[in-house]
Each structure stands twice: as structure tokens, then as C-alpha cells.
Amino acid sequence: MNFKIWFIFGAILACTSAKAVSRRKKNGLYQTTKGMNQFAVELYKKTAKLHKDNLISSPLSTGIALSMVAYGARGATEYEMKSNLHLPVDDKLGQKGFLSLITTLHKIKKVNFKLVQGLFIDYHLKVKGEFSNMTKNVFKSPTRRLKFEDPENTAQFINDWCKGRTRNLIKDIVQPEDIKEGFSVLVSGVYFKGSWKSPFKTEHTSLQPFFVNSEAYKYVPMMYQKSRLRYGFLAEGEAVYAELPYDTRGSRHSLIMFVILPIKEDGLEKIEQTLGYIDYRKLHLEGHEDNIELYMSKFKIESTIDFQPILDKMGMRRMFRDRADFSGITKKPMKITKAVQKAIIEVDEAGSETTASTGLARKITSGINSSRIVLNRPFIVKIVHIPTNTILFQGHVVDPSK
């Protein structure tokens, strides 16, 4: 019998000396986050091509879950996973980096942030002690043995576990029919709730047209604020970005939502496929700061993504096939059967996951200039932890009315 595993991913540097750069390259956190962001770029390009509707995902959650299992892979499976995840060659350095990253993210104040991982295995299967200790000590994910011959209670336990750690947002992630003897379930998710450092005023929100394409538009609640914001240009001037910082007062762990708007009305896909690795710390420091009029639609996105075909196209094929080698986890033959992520984000005047009323106000026109950015056509969103240059969430808004 194959031992199968089901993934559910429910998710100041102005000038440096050569010595400082050298120290960073030897630093586990630096190497790990750099690799995770490179993986995030490649993952997003493939995902955005397949998901043309509203999209939100957590590359951090996906990357951590895959990395955790990659440390138990061997042979060609190990090579495929670690090379595509851009993990440090030195396992100890990489694991030290993940521990530092997870510890750092959990120290963020003024926002509710929770990164959770859970490995649930069939009671009859035995996981190697070295792997079990690694997941517990590095990824804070102790292994839980459950009676998979009782699918109803096992599914209920996993769903309750996930629901309780994501403030009831991620529900019913597994069904009883998904639980079979000889299987294992890995749950990795990110819960995030934050408030803007400079909130939008609800009385300024009005129904305005959002152009879903060059021929059609829908009226949606459009928020407005005029405040000092950082902004700049990307993709050789073909996209403009603005920064919306979250309130992390009393904490040096700054979180920022980057909203990226293509200059051309139909330029979303080109920008998504053009953008490469970005050092968001450097981008933040080099951005212009000015009094900006920002118009942005309210939106709520729920995405369920099957990552198997995406990861397969990225080159991580072997882990889904019978020839997969996960002998660092168990002596029994094992392969990954599913890699699914469910992610939810809601944005309004106060920040993430709050509600507010909408009124009718003035009409606005589309445009970008040095003092006004109007997000009334498809745009990209990325939530980034600046100190570690880590992308927590990324996606695109193509129709906020859905």
C-alpha cells in the first residue's frame, strides 16, 4: 500500500557594505526568505495564468508546507522539490531560516497573524523520529496520529483544528470521503487580520464604475482617501504601485499591502508575467512619498486552488507519482495525492475583515498622475512583511462585485 499525503494550504537597507552582504548570504533567514520569494514569483505566474477570476493565495503557506515535506524527500524527488523551492543547499541553514522566519512573524503586533501547520497521519503508519522532531522543532508542527478508519471523526477533528486556528474562517477543508487508511493530511494555513495605518473614511465611500474589461463595467463600493503614501513605478514604467501600510504601532515589524495597477487598461496579464523577483525593502525605501488621492474598491476574495497541475508545470512532478521517494519520512512507499489551498481576504475602509456602510457620492474618472491613483480596473495585491521581505499573500482583483 502506498503511503499517501494530502496537502491543504488553507496563509533599513539604504546602503550596505560588502561585509554586510556577505554576512547576509550566510544568514539562514536571508537565504530562506530570498528562496521563498523567488518561489512565490514563479508560483504566481503559473497560478495567475490558470485563474483569470479574482485570486488570492499565500505563497508563504504553500512554500512552508512543501518545504517541510521536501526535507523528508530523497533522491530525484528531493532535487526537484528543493531546487524549485529555492531552498538553501545546507539543510541546517535552511531549517534555521524557517525557524527564524516563523518566530519573527509571530512577533508582529497590532495585527492578528497566525501561521499554522498540522501533520495528521494514520494511526497505523509510523513516521521517522528525525522527521517528526524536525517538523515539531523547526516548523512548530507536531505530528498527530488519528484513526483514519473512522473518517467521520477524523475529518471533524482536522476541520475543528483548522477552524479554531483561523478564527472560523477556514471551514470544512476535508470531507469524510477524503479520509482513507494509509493516507496522511498536512494542513498549512495563514490567518491575517489587520487595520490600516491610515483608514479610509466610510463617508467617502461611493458607488463607482469598475471596468472589468475594455467594454464592460460594474458599479462597486469605491473607497477614497487623501494621505501621505509611498508610490512608484514597476515593469519599466508599465505599472504604478501604491503602499497601504497596516497599523503595527509599537512594533518594528511593518506590514504593507502593495497595490499594483497596470498603466494600460488591458495590461494585467502582461504585468503579471513580466514582474520578477522584487526586493520590497528596497522598493519601499526608494518609493516617493507624497499627498496622494487613492481610490480603491472594497473587495472580498475566496480562492480554492488545486496546485498539483501548477507545481507539475513548475517541475515538481515526481512527488505526485508512484516513483516518489519520501524515505526520509517513512519506510513505506509514499506520494503526494493532492495539493490544495483555500485562502480568504476581505478589504474595506478599516482594513482587513471588517464591515462598513456605503453611500453615494461624486463620480470619478479613470487615471494616474503624480497626485491621484484610481484602482477602477483589474489590479494586483501583495501583502508583504518588509523586514524579512516575505510575501504573505498575493493575488489580483478583476471584479470586486463578485
From TrEMBL:
InterPro entries: Serpin_CS, Serpin_dom, Serpin_fam. PROSITE patterns: PROKAR_LIPOPROTEIN, SERPIN. It comes from the Eukaryota. SMART domains: SERPIN. GO terms for molecular function: serine-type endopeptidase inhibitor activity. GO terms for cellular component: extracellular space. PANTHER family: GH10112P-RELATED, SERINE PROTEASE INHIBITOR, SERPIN. Belongs to the serpin family. This is Serpin domain-containing protein. It comes from Cotesia typhae.
